[in-house]
């Protein structure tokens, strides 16, 4: 169905990872579900899903959180896309991005994975990199900390103060992408903040 969008928040399963930087994609789809007073349910595609609407009478949204680890997210995403009949151009992947400063959101369709193994696996499973992405900036680690450790650390106390705003903005970006398209969402979210 052309008016159905699959919105996938990448992350790792389980309480150990819930509040880590790598799971910001899942925090965003949690926010989208909360705005609609919806609760995630287990799905046979090894994911938790919510079936809802952008707004009454609007596009259908399937919000999803894979139950797999980040690096093998592609299987659940591909299964969900097949189950709901969603083409890659309507599969929005929300994920953390090291190369974007914290508290910044960038949107794009296609391109490389930038070393993000979750995005790489989704592109492989969908057999194309041509899907929209909402990239939520987490910034690079300070000093010599390894990036792999950084993404699995919880947000710091300073970050936690603005995290709800960042998650809300990323959820807004998803909604605008669905409602008005990529260019409109980019124009809003790529502009410098006042």
Automatic annotation (TrEMBL):
<comment type="function">
    <text>Hydrolyzes ribosome-free peptidyl-tRNAs (with 1 or more amino acids incorporated), which drop off the ribosome during protein synthesis, or as a result of ribosome stalling.</text>
</comment>
<feature type="binding site">
    <location>
        <position position="17"/>
    </location>
    <ligand>
        <name>tRNA</name>
    </ligand>
</feature>
<dbReference type="GO" id="GO:0004045">
    <property type="term" value="F:peptidyl-tRNA hydrolase activity"/>
</dbReference>
<dbReference type="GO" id="GO:0000049">
    <property type="term" value="F:tRNA binding"/>
</dbReference>
<feature type="binding site">
    <location>
        <position position="71"/>
    </location>
    <ligand>
        <name>tRNA</name>
    </ligand>
</feature>
<dbReference type="Pfam" id="PF01195">
    <property type="entry name" value="Pept_tRNA_hydro"/>
</dbReference>
<keyword id="KW-0820">tRNA-binding</keyword>
<comment type="subunit">
    <text>Monomer.</text>
</comment>
<protein>
    <recommendedName>
        <fullName>Peptidyl-tRNA hydrolase</fullName>
        <ecNumber>3.1.1.29</ecNumber>
    </recommendedName>
</protein>
<feature type="active site" description="Proton acceptor">
    <location>
        <position position="22"/>
    </location>
</feature>
<keyword id="KW-0694">RNA-binding</keyword>
<dbReference type="GO" id="GO:0005737">
    <property type="term" value="C:cytoplasm"/>
</dbReference>
<dbReference type="InterPro" id="IPR018171">
    <property type="entry name" value="Pept_tRNA_hydro_CS"/>
</dbReference>
<comment type="similarity">
    <text>Belongs to the PTH family.</text>
</comment>
<feature type="binding site">
    <location>
        <position position="117"/>
    </location>
    <ligand>
        <name>tRNA</name>
    </ligand>
</feature>
<keyword id="KW-0963">Cytoplasm</keyword>
<feature type="binding site">
    <location>
        <position position="69"/>
    </location>
    <ligand>
        <name>tRNA</name>
    </ligand>
</feature>
<comment type="function">
    <text>Catalyzes the release of premature peptidyl moieties from peptidyl-tRNA molecules trapped in stalled 50S ribosomal subunits, and thus maintains levels of free tRNAs and 50S ribosomes.</text>
</comment>
<dbReference type="InterPro" id="IPR001328">
    <property type="entry name" value="Pept_tRNA_hydro"/>
</dbReference>
<dbReference type="InterPro" id="IPR036416">
    <property type="entry name" value="Pept_tRNA_hydro_sf"/>
</dbReference>
<feature type="site" description="Stabilizes the basic form of H active site to accept a proton">
    <location>
        <position position="96"/>
    </location>
</feature>
<dbReference type="GO" id="GO:0072344">
    <property type="term" value="P:rescue of stalled ribosome"/>
</dbReference>
<dbReference type="GO" id="GO:0006515">
    <property type="term" value="P:protein quality control for misfolded or incompletely synthesized proteins"/>
</dbReference>
<keyword id="KW-0378">Hydrolase</keyword>
<feature type="site" description="Discriminates between blocked and unblocked aminoacyl-tRNA">
    <location>
        <position position="12"/>
    </location>
</feature>
